[in-house]
Amino acid sequence: MQYISTRGRAPRLDFGQVLLDGLARDGGLYLPESWPRVEPATMRAWRGLDYAGLAKQVMRLFVGTTIAPADLDRMIDDTYAGFGHKAVAPLKQLGANEWVMELFHGPTLAFKDFALQLLGRLFDHALDRSDRRGVILGATSGDTGSAAIEACRDRARLDVFILHPLGRTSEVQRRQMTTVLSPNVHNIAIRGTFDDAQDMVKAAFGDEAFRDQVGLTAINSINWARIAAQVVYYFHAALALGAPDREVAFAVPTGNFGDVYAGYIAASMGLPVAKLIVATNENDILARFFRNGDYSSAGVRPTWSPSMDIQVASNFERLLFDLKGRDGEATAAAIRTFRETGHLPVSDAEIAKARLLFDAGAADDARTIDTIARVFAETGEILDPHTAVGVAVARDRREGVPAGTPVVVLATAHPAKFPDAVEKAIGRRPALPARMADLMERPERYDTLEADVSILTSHILSHRRNA
Ligand SMILES: Cc1ncc(COP(=O)(O)O)c(C=O)c1O
Ligand SMILES: N[C@@H](CCOP(=O)(O)O)C(=O)O
């Protein structure tokens, strides 16, 4: 399989090259030249596979021949053997046709582990084979950072630089990153928002000389491999609930549009998805787009669901590329206009096309806390605030889903990552797993930098171990 850029001016690459390149050299994002199709008979044959077995089938379609099947299978087995629940991504029923898929049983307690645990292994494999070293650079609003650090800590060929917005993550999230003292891990607090940090990452990739000098690689969902690994759990949930002989809808707490975009890919591959419900907090640019076509930036506001405090959603560009008939020039022009004016030009036809599969809504902080309390009272389940946004919006938008169709809300983080929000809702602080019990006492290490890419690149050059 070959990959092309959303901006139409970067070379076509295979999976192994896309994995290491991350962002396309024309500033765009890579995606497959065409979607692999999965026929209903194949899906029926996949029913009953365990999570790793299903991941092998799905990932093979994206990886092609760039990794030997035995190597890929071994990496996938190792990845999901490290999860804390035998089902890896268990489904729990909250009510009639209302489910949550728990994606927080990985090592850092958020859905990011599904892809990043695999990516750490894929990077090692690729760098070993080419006898190269690399620098991983990522931005995080709280969860990607710790998942990337956990996946790449102590790997001989990698240095990991993670930017988080100073004071805008939960304390547990920050400590999950800054208490990892491995010599190849470099945490940086940025004076700014997640969007500023993400812009700095993209600008560093735009500096070709720097990029080639250090062997820069991305761990954010701008890297196609992240998205590919997240497609698997849509198949996993839908097959368990009757696909391909029954449609399933998903509600997805959304910030950078990576997770819900993986659902769009599953649907594009043939999975019968009735609706993808995009659920945002008060930082609602994506909800506004799908509701009334308004994709215009507003300042980022801090909320109880800090990982979704994002107003520039990277992966939206991948959807836009499809909405614009896979026209790279038109996509690049629209993104340029958005960057210059803060407003994305889209036609009524493009919005109507998006609405065929997507619906959306937003839940503010009060609603988030109320939903945690309500679901706890109804079922005894404790939701994290991001998942609560998903449940609230799924309930608001239920009438847009055909009657009798199950709605699966992606439970994207463990409630113990956000004890203050949970305590506000139910008067109780959820406990961290025993292996993290001393997290709040561990020493921290991080640097603080201004949101300036030249300061960042100098910092990387002087701190990387693999110089
Ligand atoms: C806990 C949690 N939920 C939801 C999201 C939103 O996912 P995405 O950015 O892929 O839309 C994030 C971060 O991105 C997250 O960390
Ligand atoms: N919420 C994310 C933001 C980055 O998203 P990504 O999926 O592109 O890595 C986080 O927790 O860092």
Automatic annotation (TrEMBL):
Keywords: Amino-acid biosynthesis, Lyase, Pyridoxal phosphate. Pathway: Amino-acid biosynthesis. InterPro entries: Ser/Thr_deHydtase_PyrdxlP-BS (IPR000634), Thr_synth_N (IPR029144), Thr_synth_N_sf (IPR037158), Thr_synthase-like (IPR004450), Threonine_Synthase (IPR051166), TrpB-like_PALP_sf (IPR036052). It is an enzyme of class 4 (lyase). It comes from the Bacteria. Its EC number is 4.2.3.1. The modification N6-(pyridoxal phosphate)lysine is found at residue 112. Its cofactor is pyridoxal 5'-phosphate. PROSITE patterns: DEHYDRATASE_SER_THR (PS00165). Gene3D superfamilies: 3.40.50.1100, Threonine synthase, N-terminal domain. GO terms for biological process: threonine biosynthetic process. Residues 2-80 form the Threonine synthase N-terminal domain. It catalyses: O-phospho-L-homoserine + H2O = L-threonine + phosphate. GO terms for molecular function: pyridoxal phosphate binding; threonine synthase activity. SUPFAM superfamilies: Tryptophan synthase beta subunit-like PLP-dependent enzymes (SSF53686). Belongs to the threonine synthase family. PANTHER family: THREONINE SYNTHASE FAMILY MEMBER, THREONINE SYNTHASE-LIKE 2. NCBIfam families: thrC (TIGR00260). This is Threonine synthase. It comes from Tistrella mobilis (strain KA081020-065).
